[in-house]
Amino acid sequence: MKTPKATTQTIAEATGLSLATVSRALAGSPQVLPGTRARVLEAAKALHFVRDRAAVRLKTGKTHVLAFLVNRSDANQPAFKDLMLGISDALQGTDYHLIVMPEGTDTNRLKALRHVVENKLADGVVITHTMPDDARVHYLQKASLPFVSHGRTHITPAHAYVDFANERYAADAVHTLYAQGRRRLAILLPESGGTFWEYLSSGFRAACATCGLEGRVVQDMDMDQSPEKIYQWTRAHVHAFDGLVLTREAPVIALTTAVLDAGLRLRQDLDLVVKYSSHMPRYVRQPLLGCFEDIYRTGTSLGANLVHQMTAPAGAPQHILFQPPPIESLYDPDPR
User: What is the tens place of the pLDDT at every residue in 112-135?
Assistant: First the structure.
């Protein structure tokens, strides 16, 4: 005989709780004590209870879906999957599920976001690649939709964000290169316009000024260009420098190959510092200096931050800024 489908009434009978309490616990209401919610969820799992999401949406207007809006350039970044999986894993044990939506190819970054908001596809949103005065943040604040950004902005009132202290990384890289005796430094940045670019360049410039160096913020090439363009630029310009600060790991192979093809030796003639989030730079087998950014931790923090807004909507927005770990040698066949 087929087992009857479990309902909220079934869970209420199994736990001895009222139907209203069970419904609130399943909906993630902050009015339910954590112990009571855990008791309800445990019973729901044991009874193989599956919520009718269409009915829940009709009744509450909630989708129990969170949307991750992806910048298309991230598809080329080695650690992108760790960011996505981190967000998804943070939702385990909650009543929320994740959808991933790439932003469009046009310059109107509001298009995909408007589609999500106007069609009520999600109860909350994660955005990335923030700008100092980001139109998406203004839009979400007016829409009163919970959101968290990967990256800071200059917008007030302050909104929830998770970020890496890129200004500190750039400064640490300069001081490390200076300690190695390097004096002709440059920083290779992502495409300009974002706060990522702003914090990296300001940290680099400030540290160069402290060390009495000019330092060059490269403007005629960015780390989001194709490996071939990065190779050709490096091959043509690398003799002007003895220390480079890299802000992405994806172009490392093209860049180190260009250095070697230009007749220079890493560590002897030139030092490279790279911010990385996967293990790929460790297998380049060249003497690189590196700073690890834990993108999976960033993802779990973004997800947890957004869930916190769902369960404690009256709370202050959470600001999470991860400090960079010390710069280390990734591969050194001939330690000094």
Answer: 999 999 999 999 999 999 999 999
